Description:
Elements (H helix, E strand, L loop, with lengths): L3 H6 L2 H18 L12 H11 L4 H14 L3 H6 L2 H7 L6 H18 L8 H4 L7 H12 L8 H9 L8 H11 L5 H14 L27
Helix pairs in contact: 3-4, 3-9, 6-7, 10-12
The chain binds iron/sulfur cluster (SF4).
Iron/sulfur cluster binds next to α10.
Amino acid sequence: MINASAVARESKADRARRFAEIVRRLEKEMPEAKIALNYEDELQLLVSVMLSAQSTDAVVNQVTPALFARYPTAAHYARSTPEILGEQIKRVGLWRAKAKNLHETMTRIARDHGGHLPRKREELCELPGVGWKTAGVVVNHAFGTPALPVDTHVGRVSRRLGLTREEDPRKVEQELSALLPDRLWGRAHQLLIWHGRRTCESRRPHCSRCVVRDLCPRRGVKESD
Ligand code: SF4
C-alpha cells in the first residue's frame, strides 16, 4: 500500500512503473474503454468533440446524427450560418458560442485546408473553439498521433493517484506523458476517463472496489479534491 509520504519520496522511475501498472490494471478491468462519441470520419469527430465541452457525450450523440446528415462536408457547414447551426445544436451546453465557432472553423477548413482537418495538434488549435485538449483527442483518434489530453477526469484521478500535483491541464499532460511510453498515452487518457466516471467519481470515489487502491495515496478520499 502506497501512502502520501512514499509518493513524495518516489523517484521518477518508480512513479513511471507505478503509472504503467495502473494503466495495465485499468486496461484489464475495462478493455472495452473507448471514446463515447459517435462519429464516422475525422470531420465528424472534430464536430463531436467541439460540441462535447460542458455537455454530456449522450446529448451530443443525440444531436449529431441530424447534423451530420445535413452537413456532410466542411463546405456544407460554411454555406450555413451560425444562427441556423445554433438551431440544430440547441440541446448542447453553450450552443450559441459553439455554433459560431463551428461555422468559423468549418469555413476555415473548407477555405484554407481543402476541406480536410489539419493533422498537427498545433494547427488544429488555431481553429476557433478548438483547444489543446480537443485537438489532442482529435489527432489521437483520427490520425493515431500519440497524445494524452487532460480533461476533468484525467486531471482529478491523476492528482488523487499522486502522479502529478499540477492543476493546469497542459502541465498535467506534460508530467503524465513523461512517465509513459508514447504508445500508451492514448490508452492512459481513455482509461483514466473511464475510471473517473465509473469508480473514482468526483464527489464519491468508490475506493473499496477500486483495482488500483493499493497504488493510490488518496484511497478513502470522501469528496471532490
Ligand atoms: S483508491 Fe479511491 S481515490 Fe484512489 S484512484 Fe481509486 S477510487 Fe480514486
